[in-house]
Design a protein that fits this description.
By secondary structure, this protein is mostly helical. The chain is 67% helix and 0% strand. Helix 5 packs antiparallel against helix 6.
């Protein structure tokens, strides 16, 4: 899927004018931001109708607030370890903590929405 925009751009802009390294560095952005599309589908089902907007907004904003600490933590870890790649790798371990927590979320498939 990430190849489609690249192939379309290469038809419009001559290949010698495209910096291949810069273009391919943007590919992960396509997949990284895809999770936000899931929020609009999955989060509202977690809350009753009266709280649906507030609950979804709170969860979305809390994730953004916690995510804002990431650059600071990477800087601190890079200073302590002396290695930026190691700092990024260490901070990415946070996903290993969150992965088992997914099992705590209720399954909503095939169930009516709470009123």
């Amino acid at each position: 899927m990430a190849e489609l925009p690249q192939s379309l751009v290469s038809k419009i802009i001559p290949p010698e004018r495209i910096d291949r390294q810069d273009w391919s560095a943007g590919r992960p952005l396509v997949f990284t931001n895809g999770v936000f599309g899931l929020f609009t589908i999955w989060l509202p089902e977690m809350f009753p109708s009266a709280l649906r907007g507030a609950g979804s907004g709170f969860c979305f904003s809390l994730g953004r607030i916690l995510g804002a600490a990431g650059p600071t933590l990477i800087g601190v870890l890079a200073a302590k370890t002396g290695s930026m790649p190691l700092a990024i790798s260490l901070l990415s371990l946070i996903y290993l903590i969150g992965l088992p927590l997914i099992r705590l979320a209720p399954e909503t498939a095939g169930k009516p929405l709470a009123r």
